[in-house]
Amino acid sequence: MAGRGKYAKGVAKREEILRTALDVFAIQGYRGTSLRELAEAVNLSQAGVLHYFDSKEELFAEILRKRDERDNAEYSEGEDVIDTFVEVMRHNADRPGFVSLYANISAAATEPEHAAHEFFAQRYENMRLNLADGVRTRQAEGRMATDLDPEMVASVMLAAADGLQVQWLLKPELDMAEHLDYMWSILSSAPIRTEE
């Protein structure tokens, strides 16, 4: 019985660390936040924070996972998946710390042994599937050309979004959502080919 209480306290502390990290990283970002600062914010030592995670890389992946959970809860209620994708990009402009964390960790996570590798592989797969379904919905409604390959469109849009985020980190006046929306409008206005 005591073991279960200890486990519940550990889960609660881990959640507290992640919630606090969301606030700290949103403002200060990947480079501006040290593990020491995060530890101080949750009244732990650096080793104490890492007690709840296998590594600093796992901590970062879990921060991004928690951010995705919040975004999904806030933006996915009955919305068009493509419009939601653009809206999240607009929202990201208010959270430079997460954009920086995402850009840095996603690049490092391409290595198969990286603690965040599986998280990013699964995240991209899920996003590709969701965006491809959004393309299919628009095609069925007559709002997008039916000869466009939904999976390829989804992959290209994910690549565009990631590239726009990197450009925005270098040039903050760039409107990521506007550029992404522009690309969708080009794809949406592609002529619908008919069989002769």
TrEMBL record:
Kindly indicate whether the keyword DNA-binding belongs to this entry. Answer: yes
Q: Which SUPFAM superfamilies does the UniProt record give? A: Homeodomain-like, Tetracyclin repressor-like, C-terminal domain
Record-linked InterPro entries: BetI_C, Homeodomain-like_sf, HTH_TetR, Tet_transcr_reg_TetR-rel_C_sf
Q: Which domain of life is it from?
A: Bacteria
PROSITE patterns in the record: HTH_TETR_2
Specify whether Zinc is a keyword of the entry: no
Q: Which residues bind DNA?
A: 34-53
Protein name in UniProt: TetR family transcriptional regulator
